[in-house]
Automatic annotation (TrEMBL):
Protein name, per record: Histidine--tRNA ligase
Alphabetized GO MF terms: histidine-tRNA ligase activity
Localization in the cell: Cytoplasm
HAMAP family recorded: His_tRNA_synth
Pfam families registered for this protein in UniProt: HGTP_anticodon, tRNA-synt_His
Subunit and interaction comment: Homodimer.
Keywords: Aminoacyl-tRNA synthetase, ATP-binding, Cytoplasm, Ligase, Nucleotide-binding, Protein biosynthesis
Main location: cytoplasm
Domain Aminoacyl-transfer RNA synthetases class-II family profile: 26-315
Keyword Transmembrane helix attributed: no
Family: Belongs to the class-II aminoacyl-tRNA synthetase family.
Keyword Isomerase found: no
Length: 402
């Protein structure tokens, strides 16, 4: 018979066990605690959406849409895309599920996202994001609240080496005039830009500022910065005032733009220098134009997404969870008693492991190694089940089994 080959994983799709999985869930658990403190409701949205949901909102010329989406035709011939991010899908649901009546809608979620990128440390094809959005809120307070949420999350995770970088992209008017200045600036160096940026020059010059290509960097450094309109300046001033009052530190970065088309006003990233080129751990901003792109009414909104894997790499290893009790079955006669005891203890909320396999003489040592707080040894004498309890902690088991 031909040898069966072991399937390999999809490149850039990770499987986690033990400490790595614990770190991942520590990040998710912290997010879930903190989002409640800020009154964000949990939402669930599909992993698959019609391709148009992302193509229309994220902009046909963004890297994500032009190169990174996992799109395929399903059996009915409809083009479907695995979500590359949450925002567009949440806004689709906001419109199609009638969530407009809950405005301002403060929602949080987490889960997998997919992008066809070159896999490397901190960059995967299946990765996972935390996501927080406030939809239907025009006030700068919404931006402040989201940034405070991000900042508290990082603090609770014990991640200290992070800087909040902040910029304003202005309103439509100031953004348009900045756009022409950028075209003029970059067009003067057209031939020296990367191929991608030469293309961006035609379609969306702002995005050149986001380029990681070293050929573009020196022209990015000398690029003109945006002069916000009086209105945009006022909005940004209120965001900054709120951050100061809430005790959230930030640095202004006039060249910070977001890679996606729909951003206006506030744009931000929480960045660390600990993860090399993959240093952005939380990124987001205000996307007042997105819901309209989906055919909805004008709806101001702001949100962010964080890479769970990147945060997980930065936290201390979570403490190993001890089990409350191990039941060592020294004699098979005691097996039924072990099940009865385990059921009773687990129903009382204690974590229990039964050790009933392998050499009987080694079972007790294995229970010790598991770090059980209490060890119940079930043996047999004259056909009767015997019980000894060895306690390392408050003896809870005796009372429960009595
Ligand atoms: P980058 O500049 O690192 O490519 P991005 O601008 O594409 O990030 P966003 O679309 O803003 O990222 O996504 C928000 C966050 O999701 C990022 O800051 C990062 O933490 C995480 N993220 C994005 N792409 C990946 C990926 N391929 N693997 C792991 N995490 C990712
Ligand atoms: Mg990217």
């Amino acid at each position: 018979m031909a040898k069966i080959e072991t399937p390999q994983p999809i490149r850039g799709a990770q499987s986690l066990l033990g400490e790595e999985a614990d770190r991942f869930h520590e990040v998710v658990a912290a997010f879930d605690r903190v989002r409640r403190l800020y009154g964000f409701k949990r939402v669930e949205v599909p992993l698959i959406e019609p391709t148009q949901v992302f193509a229309r909102t994220m902009g046909e010329t963004t890297d994500v849409v032009s190169k990174e989406m996992y799109s395929f035709d399903d059996r009915s011939g409809d083009s479907i895309t695995l979500r590359p991010e949450f925002t567009a899908g949440i806004c689709r649901a906001y419109l199609s599920e009638g969530w407009q009546r809950f405005v301002p809608l403060k929602v949080a979620t987490h889960g997998a996202a997919f992008r066809y990128e070159r896999p490397q440390k901190g960059r995967y094809r299946q990765f996972h994001q935390l996501d927080a959005e406030i939809i239907g809120a025009a006030e700068p307070q919404a931006d402040v609240e989201l940034l405070a949420l991000g900042s508290q999350l990082l603090a609770e995770l014990g991640i200290g080496a992070v800087t909040l970088k902040l910029n304003t992209l202005g309103d439509a008017e100031s953004r348009d005039s900045w756009r022409s200045q950028l075209v003029e600036h970059f067009a003067a160096h057209r031939g020296e830009l990367s191929e991608d940026s030469q293309e961006r020059l035609e379609k969306n010059p702002l995005r050149i500022l986001d380029s990681k290509d070293p050929r573009d960097r020196k022209f990015v450094e000398t690029a003109p910065v945006m002069t916000p309109s009086a209105e945009a300046e006022d909005f940004f001033g209120k965001v900054r005032q709120g951050l100061d009052a809430a005790g959230v530190a930030y640095e202004l970065d006039p060249h910070l733009v977001r890679g996606l088309d729909y951003y206006r006003h506030t744009a931000f990233e929480f960045v660390t220098d600990q993860l090399g080129a993959q240093g952005t751990v939380i990124a987001g901003g205000r996307y007042d134009g997105l819901v309209e792109q989906l055919g909805g009414p004008h709806t101001p909104a702001v949100g962010w997404a964080a890479g769970i894997e990147r945060l997980a790499m930065m936290i201390d290893a979570p403490a190993i969870e001890l089990i409350d009790a191990a039941i060592v079955v020294e004699d098979d006669v005691a097996m039924d008693s072990a099940w009865a005891a385990a059921t009773r203890l687990r129903k009382a909320g204690l974590s229990v492991e039964i050790v009933a396999s392998g050499s009987p003489r080694k079972r007790f040592d294995r229970a010790v190694k598991k770090g059980a707080r209490e060890i119940i040894v079930l043996g047999a004498a004259d056909g009767e089940v015997t019980r000894r309890v060895k306690s390392n902690d408050v003896p809870r088991v005796e009372a429960l089994l009595a």
